Amino acid sequence: MSQKNLSRLAIHPEVLKKLNGSGIHNAQDFLDCSELQVMAIADLDFITTQSLFELVSESASPRIHSAAHIFAARLSKIAFLPLRLPSLDHVLGGGLSRGTLSEIVGPAGVGKTQLCLMLTAVTGLAETMGGLGEGTGVLFFDTESKFSAQRLVEIAQAQASSWYGAGTPSDLSPRPSTSDHFEAVDFDGGYGTPEHGIATARVVELLERTHVISVDSSADLLQRLDSLETILIEQRIGLIVIDSIADLVRKDAASKSSSVSHSKRPKHSDSQHESQAHVQSHLISIAATLKKLADIFHLVVLITNQVTGNYQLDGRKGSDDDEINSHSQAPAQLTLISGSSNNLAMFSQTSTPSSIPPSIALGANVVPALGNSWHHCVSTRLVLEQFPTHRTMTISKSPITTKSSCQFEITQAGLVELSGQS
After folding, report:
1. Bond into 328 cis (ω within 30)
2. What's the burial of 332, exposed, middle or buried (CB within 10 Å: 0-12/13-18/19+)?
3. Are 243 and 112 in contact (CB under 8 A)?
4. CA–CA separation, 26 vs 7, rounded Å?
5. pTM for this prediction
6. Strands in 95-217 per DSSP E
7. Over the Cα atoms of the chain, what is R_g?
8. Mean pLDDT across the stretch 35-54?
9. Which of 396, 391, 393, 363 has its CA nearest to residue 381?
10. Least packed by Cβ within 10 Å: which of 24, 62, 167, 417?
11. Cβ neighbours of residue 389 under 8 Å, at least 6 residues apart?
């Protein structure tokens, strides 16, 4: 709460301008000053300054609410963003819960980004259509350059053709018009029916309210998260996507290893341990910041993660440090798939089939990457797996339901549940 921006408080614009001009932007900055300092900076009398301190102090203090108040507040708002996979939405009580962190875990190519794009496409739909409300925005942190605007539009039109139309618009730029209304544009690029024009305008709006941000490190992500309040309010953000958190950790570890290798430190193990502790610290800070934002702004936060074979060659289960250190290498290339569930594992490039313990080959120690500390940071975890004949999504962690799964396929509309499967 101490990081709350002063622009969110009922402070006179001129006073706010003077405070900002002196480097006072949030509650912590303000409360670090004395009353005399604020009087001089903002040219205020003592009584007004005291009132201002009371306002800022109250805003920075943790609020105490009764359980009844929290329950009523939840009921007054749309509490979930549906996954649009009926059997899982049913057991989850409606979908991904607002105000919490949800994680998608799975190997490369299983459909994690496709699910992110699908939920991005439907977030701005009306509540009656399975969205969070017309005009709701999305922040999409893209760490692997996988975001595709073309695929987003394709999914949106397949999921809600009555809203976004059908087919691919050849020109998504608004046409200049002398009237007060958006001129009708046909999907073939010509001018057609008003209905087509409205659908095209909605596609344009979808793209404009989807804000894609590229980040290169966990430090970069954390810095951006710390300054999000304004855009969350102005753009009416309802969904934050981070695709993927594991990629940032791998880049951090690789960067740290590279810098250590060029230093004169004699003990590599010491520097390696420092690197792992540094990564863990950033992960915990990122999770804490996301939880705070999700709670304050009633957001759905969706994070993708990879899977790893968390093992040592003597058969012992690895530690958090072992998992994080595995990300200092290139992405794993070996994926094991067999006929039973939980058999997907990723191993480092140095692993060979002969070096894989039997328990790993059977999937006994296949876990989400990033270790136990990160494991406890998310409220809901969805595990995606791919088999020779099908793909599955399993709820492996949830505060409201036991383990449940469904089979799905990836289509033009994104992830679609296969009927008759559970």
Report:
1. no
2. buried
3. yes
4. 8
5. 0.72
6. 96-97, 100-105, 137-142, 210-214
7. 24
8. 92
9. 396
10. 62
11. none
Using alpha carbons, select from 311, 291, 289, 288 the residue that is nearest to residue 299: 291
Angle at 248 between CA 138 and CA 131, to 5 degrees: 20
User: Is residue 24 packed enough to be buried (19+ CB in 10 Å), middle (13-18) or exposed (0-12)?
Assistant: buried
Short-list 267, 242, 80, CA closest to 147: 242
Dihedral over Cα of 313, 315, 321, 323: its sign: positive
| Unique residue bearing structure tokens 């709701």 | 136
Note the pLDDT of residue 188. 40
Instruction: Specify the range with the lowest mean pLDDT, choosing from 65-79, 162-176, 369-383.
Output: 162-176
Give phi and psi for 48, each to the nearest 5.
-65, -40
Structure tokens at 397: 């962690």
Tokens of 144: 């692997």
Q: What is the mean pLDDT of residues 280-302?
A: 91
Q: Give the CB-side neighbour count of residue 280, counting CA atoms within 13 A.
A: 18
Query: How many residues belong to the chain?
Result: 422
> What are the residues whose beta carbons fall under 8 Å from the beta carbon of 4, sequence distance 6 or more?
26, 27, 59, 60, 229
The Cα 108–Cα 381 span in angstroms is 17
DSSP state, residue 296: H
Q: Which two tokens stand for residue 100?
A: 């919490």
Bridging pattern class, strands 96-97 and 237-243: unpaired
Please give the C-alpha separations between residue 83 and each of 70, 95, 146, in angstroms, as whole numbers.
24, 5, 20
**H or E element: which one contains 223?**
helix 218-225
Output the CA angle 150-152-156, nearest 5 degrees. Answer: 120
What is the C-alpha to C-alpha distance for residues 108 and 232, in angstroms, rounded to an integer? 30
Token couple for 70: 């929290």
Q: DSSP letters of 314-332?
A: TSPBP-HHHHHHHTTSPPP
Per-residue pLDDT tens over the stretch 54-70:
888 888 776 777 888 76
Instruction: Please tell me what DSSP assigns to residue 66.
Output: -
DSSP string, 252-280: HHHHHHHHHHTS--S-HHHHHHHHHHHHH
Pairing mode of beta strands 210-214, 137-142: parallel
